Amino acid sequence: MEARFNAGDRVRIRVDYPAGHFRTPGYIQGKTGTVAGVHGTFRNPESLAKGGDGLPRQYLYLVRFDQTHVWENYNASPQDKLLIDIYEHWLEPVCQS
Amino acid sequence: MEEHNHGHDAHTQVGDSHEMTSYEKRAGAILSLLTEKGVVASDEIWRAIDDMDSRTPALGAKVVARAWVDPEFKAQLLTDTKAALTELDVDIGSLNTVVALENTDKVHNVVVCTLCSCYPRTILGVPPDWYKSLSYRSRVVVDPRGVLREFGLELDPDVEVRVYDSTADIRYLVIPSRPAGTEAATEDELAGLVSRDSMIGVAMASAPGK
Predict the structure, then answer these.
(1) Domains of chain B
(2) B2-6: long-range contacts (C-beta < 8 A, 24 or more apart)?
(3) Edge-to-edge strands of the sheet including A81-87?
(4) Per residue in A40-49, pLDDT tens?
(5) Residues B113, B166, B195, B198: which is the catalytic one?
(6) Are the beta carbons of B167 and A23 separated by less than 8 Å?
(7) What is the pLDDT of residues B163-203, one digit of tens each?
(8) Which of A58, B81, B127, B154 could lock onto A87 through a cystine, CB 3.0 to 4.6 A?
(9) How many CB pairs under 8 A join A and B?
(10) Strand, helix or coil at B149?
(11) If you measure CA to CA, which chain B residue comes closest to A83?
(12) Is B206 an active-site residue?
């Protein structure tokens, strides 16, 4: 299985509240960021939390966001960043214009 | 749920004198079921507790000091953290992946887990209470510079602040900048300057002689 995204790709975080446990913070859902790195594959925590086997393994990405994009009123420094680990099934491709 | 049970039941841990919370009661009940049914033996649990207690920020400080004196080690620490730690005989087990982040005069990294309290326990031991507090977790992502100021750390506007929200399987260890005036210090002396907080990213390493 190959990683669907590579470093530098623009991605949008899906908006979803699946029943049970998930590890994509609400504050980042719907936001657009850039893949900063690919951590490799890990068991899916949403399945593990229900006693499942966590398979198929999911690619986990480090995604970088501009703080000024995440928080409307962020005015400290335009270069500040937020970096979050997100599993592949939460990422949507963003058309490069 | 009995609210006025003062916790003198069979599951009370040694030395536990406060009123047990419902979570502690639940953990105690699960623990006795697991041991009664032979899923885990209590000596396995005590061994795990001993292992956890043996891990303190001194372990992380040793890693940082080595990175300061050995550029090759630092390069490996930043690209293949596990291999570098293994070289220092630091066993991080297989549960999580540890990634090291370097603080410089241009970039300042700070770590949080907004969802719970994920923390590089195998290198830093048990997290401080403030790390698990709702106040830190909810505010450091929104206003990192303000929160760092409360820790006594005022960052220049030119410095890029990177907040890492460790939501998943990766545990982040911050490598603070080496303080000025430490050129002649030994590796052990350098390790003494590396505080737990500097490896979370809410403080700088201490200046020598302080």
Answers:
(1) 22-53 (no CATH), 57-200 (3.90.330.10)
(2) none
(3) A91-93, A10-13, A32-42, A58-66, A81-87, B160-165, B107-112
(4) 999 999 999 9
(5) B113
(6) yes
(7) 999 999 999 999 999 999 999 999 999 999 999 999 999 99
(8) A58
(9) 71
(10) helix
(11) B164
(12) no
Which of B 34-53 lie inside 8 A of A, CB atoms? none
Answer whether B190's CB lies under 8 Å from B180's CB. no
Cα distance from B25 to chain A (closest Cα, Å)?
21
Q: How many domains does chain A have?
A: 1
> For chain A, first and last CA: distance in Å?
28
Q: Which two tokens stand for residue A34?
A: 């850039």
Tell whether the model's pLDDT for residue A33 goes beyond 60. Answer: yes
Chain position carrying tokens 């900048």: B177
Q: How far is it, in rounded angstroms, from Cα B71 to Cα B74?
A: 5
Q: For residue B117, indicate whether it is catalytic.
A: yes
Residue B151 in tokens:
């820790």
The reply to whether A72 falls in a domain is no
CATH of the domain at A27: 2.30.30.50
Domain that holds residue A55: 1-62+89-97
Question: Which of A23, A40, A82 has its CB closest to that of B163?
Answer: A82
Q: Which residues of B touch A77 (CB under 8 A)?
A: 145, 157, 159-161
The ipTM, to two decimals, is: 0.96
**Does A10 fall in a domain?**
yes
